[in-house]
Specification:
The protein is mainly beta. Helix content is 10%, strand content 72%. It has an 8-stranded antiparallel β-barrel with strand order 1-3-4-5-6-7-8-9. A hairpin with a 3-residue loop joins strand 4 and strand 5. The N terminus is likely disordered.
Length: 206
């Protein structure tokens, strides 16, 4: 239900706003755009000090939207992001525990962009993040004289939020390159999932 609400809301926003813009609003016309980014994500989760944690992984995103060119550009956008995974390991003489968390999801929000020094710009964005978190756990341990393996899997999707900033250069009216930092928040049961992502991005406007 939450996923349908997010997608329907984004479609109505893009459809209604872009239609009104194309109908002949005053000022410079807007543009549709598509973009992609790739970089590194870092997970911020609470954990015990004796657990070995690998909390960085590759991240990638795809986005699309519509931008109005005013004194400060304004856009509505949506897309998909893969935030990679985190792994946790714990060992002792009788116990070998391994856990993997993965996150991906849809997002929808707004973006503002301010140009300066010719073709350079800074931007800020934020909105809703429909985050899916997958949790896989394997615990190998010895009970008495017998080796036992326990497994646990969980998959949960919840609505959270995202926010980000960026800086870049407009190489032309159609194309730009940028460096971005985005922060995504979602949950798995009562566990807060907070992930920061640094990406290099490219955007094409048409």
């Amino acid at each position: 239900m939450n996923k349908r609400i997010l997608v329907i809301g984004l479609a109505l926003a893009l459809g209604g706003l872009s239609t009104s813009a194309l109908a002949g609003n005053a000022g410079e016309p807007g543009q549709f755009y598509v973009g992609a980014g790739v970089g590194q994500a870092k997970w911020h989760v609470d954990h015990d000090s004796d657990i070995k944690l690998d909390n960085t992984d590759t991240t990638a995103n795809l986005r699309f939207g519509y931008v109005w060119h005013w004194n400060v550009d304004f856009a509505v956008e949506g897309g998909y992001v893969d935030l990679g995974k985190i792994t946790a390991d714990w060992h002792d003489t009788t116990d070998d525990y391994h856990e993997t968390l993965k996150s991906q999801g849809l997002f929808a929000g707004a973006k503002v962009k301010y140009g300066f020094a010719g073709n350079w710009y800074v931007d800020g964005r934020g909105g809703l993040f429909q985050g899916q978190v997958k949790d896989d756990q394997i615990d190998n341990y010895v009970e008495g004289s017998q080796a036992v393996t326990d497994t646990f899997r969980e998959n949960e999707t919840k609505t959270g939020w995202y926010a980000g900033v960026g800086v870049g250069c407009n190489l032309s009216r159609q194309f730009s390159l940028g460096l971005n930092y985005d922060y995504y928040h979602s949950k798995l049961d009562d566990l807060d999932i907070n992930i920061g992502a640094v990406t290099v991005s490219a955007e094409y406007r048409f």
